[in-house]
């Protein structure tokens, strides 16, 4: 189907089902219950899951297939965001031209950086990409402020020209981003019993883009081009000795993954029209590396899982404060309640980084293949019978 | 001219910190083949050894002074460090004053222990794993270490002053025949530079002139062959990890009076020290040291007003520009060896 | 968390179908008049503060103040500044009889993370007001978000002119003072202390707040006769300022002005003292250092080096008015140490919001904004204060402070030198340093 083999098609269907029903899946607890804290089914976080999923899928095309570890991919995401916001400022609030421009600009930027950086391999390549990204960040934060609005981030204002749209709405507000009239931030709420499910236009827009991006990634993974990239990973020297010039292939992979990052950046700006320089900082580049490794580098679905994992902790665990903890454990006797709260406090709220760091260590120590391997082990445990078959599914690492 | 001399001094000073961190990082790269993202955290822990000793020496008992009041209007509790009670105010004060130099002694066993525990407890399981996994686990460790420090010491910088004797600055200009007060340099920064030189010299001498060092160097060049000769190279590598941790820690202890330590100072130095190591060339200790000083001096020159007025913002990016130029001109950095971390 | 999100520009089902989704008709469409209208017995406020990164301690102090304010609003504790507040409509039974609940989040001092956190408060928790923050970049970013979403933003610590200047928003309000006010208050004191014949050298953090701070203090000192020798931008990421400080030795400048905040300020001040600048004599005058924006929490990191150095601050716990004393007592009794200026402004902002809701009789952001605009109050620690309608900036006295020579405790670092009266720091709404933006119209969302 769609040029995919059966396994890949099933995977695509599973992913499609997951993203379409995400508003239900991510909201398992009634809104009134104490566990509602763990619900992640609100528009902003769902959008972030999907957008960072796209970012990580793109990163994985480079890292998972060719083994080139770029430490500067956030620069492309940032450039994509800036392009999109400038499009909203100058042209119109329609997201289509904005996203097209962000993909093109980040592609060109990736072409330039890739052309130079790919002259080196291994850690030398990583440091070159890091250097370019850090330069972009620092300049955007300071000297390039006329273009990037520096620390504050590039925002829309009431006096932007928007030549194909309106400068301000009739009520005196900044117009909202839309897809041919469909407003990105409009949300429908469905209340069923104690549950409240939110359906956001922007989220579904992102979801459609994710599915397209995912489909394209599968096709790349399974194509002769993808095979060539894997050959580069296993032994580039041998490839060169056979008289084959690998550079066009690696450069193509670099540019494609840069365009994925630009797409993610453009979508991010389309959901929330602001572009901040921190998006390009090395920590942001490091984050996508962590997402990919955590989920399982070289697997199709791993990077998306890794992205979801990190964003979940960032957004959910950081919001659990002392008050929430007390409300969970108020049934316990006072002394025990305070002790439990005191212990847990270290790991939530302002301590969310600690939990994340510990989980990085645990996952990579015990699940060498990342979260995907965890899933596989779980699957094997559940269905011991066809354990043999299971390891051969499409989620097997590329190696 | 005096401006240039001053910037060279500044550069040597910054370079000392970069070189010390990069030296430890290269020891771990070169001997163990591990990408250690927790190395910045070791530097930070070193600085907090100084902070901790300072706090320890300042442990105080309270006496109530009814003549003065605190912010709530209650009688003021005056704190006196126990040390001053035990040794008398003068000697006690002197001990507290010298807390940073004392912390050098205090930190060496701690840093070596931290290094051993890290290597035996965690890193050794990752020798045969891909570099990506090493990055993830050491990055996780770095986060955990810095969060623990944040939990006990807070996020704000903590002042850790140098002994009063070293507080002033030295008038270089007068000595070299310039006008007085044009080229002055703080004593502590000069001590930092001298200290770094001693440590670097010590590490090189250790590797060059001892049998242990010889074996380690052989192991860096060809681990398998050394193993085949029946030498327990693993044990030596553990010791090297402890040594690298101690070097990073000492760099941190001595840095504490220059800039007040805070919990994320390790992350601030991490990326920079990787750039330094790679520019120096993978697997080369002299390369790491040379790159540290080179980038330190370049950074200082780039922050001169005359240069900033020609290229605005150059001081923000000079290190990265230099890294790109050097890596494009010399494929393996300044002194890198072929085949180390190239795939 | 019982009320559900309904947003401005809710779409008709038809349009959603157009996006390729056939939706069943069981959706409840927006029946409320504004975003997150509280319908139950509680109202949720969102406190968005830095919990990680360099300003985490400041964020923690803000959070303490918010918790204290919520306690007082709900009638617990000793009531703090609610007793001294000139407006007495708050009764200690929550806001409009609804019990106040709150949610917290981590801004990480990054615009993106701060917006994500604020959005989750609005979309998931139903917050009707967002407050907090410790940097201007974050304040401006979150203020823009609140404007779009239709909730009120009560800014925390943000000192850039832009927050109520070119980036001002109808739904955003700032109690904290700004860079212009710092300059206007500080310059006369500097002139009387150090004379009018001085040559100043500026080191400025290279981002928007630093630039507005530099512009403000430069204009203020120059108008009193000072000469500006040079203004040098330093990278935000800089930790060692030695290479920016040594060039000062080669100039004939006799004052160094550090337009730095937080960790930058601690390091640049420490470095400047290391290089012996404070013992230096230039043109027969003692060399001086000035830090325009002081933060007591951060000043601790610079230790001895702050002694005798002038700066300005929004509020200080040693003030003797009834409001300040009530607040210090209530905060100090609960937490064991005096509050910071960040804690003070956050506490006051929460009270002011609650009071405006009570006076307006509605949580509707437009009604609240109207109640706050042009509102004059007293008893909250800064004397008589006006929330100006033109730009939603509070106008009040500004404190000029100096690092204390003989501190009695670790909190006793600053002493108030002068309380600059509000008239001296007031400026026209169309002042060039604040021009360029427009408030726009208030947005109630839904």
TrEMBL record, chain B:
It is a multi-pass membrane protein. The keyword Cell membrane applies. GO terms for biological process: amino acid transport. Keywords: Amino-acid transport, Cell membrane, Membrane, Transmembrane, Transmembrane helix, Transport. GO terms for molecular function: transmembrane transporter activity. Signal peptide: none annotated. It is found in: Cell membrane. It holds the Pfam family BPD_transp_2. The chain crosses the membrane at residues 16-35, 42-61, 98-123, 190-216, 237-258, 270-298, 310-329. The keyword Signal does not apply. One of its GO terms (cellular component) is plasma membrane. Belongs to the binding-protein-dependent transport system permease family. LivHM subfamily. This is High-affinity branched-chain amino acid transport system permease protein LivH. It comes from Pseudooceanicola marinus.
TrEMBL record, chain C:
InterPro entries: BCAA_transport (IPR051010), Leu-bd (IPR028081), Peripla_BP_I (IPR028082), TAT_signal (IPR006311). PROSITE patterns: TAT. Keywords: Amino-acid transport, Receptor, Signal, Transport. The keyword Chaperone does not apply. One of its GO terms (biological process) is amino acid transport. Residues 42-404 form the Leucine-binding protein domain. It holds the Pfam family Peripla_BP_6. Belongs to the leucine-binding protein family. This is Receptor family ligand binding region. The lineage of its organism: Bacteria, Pseudomonadati, Pseudomonadota, Alphaproteobacteria, Rhodobacterales.
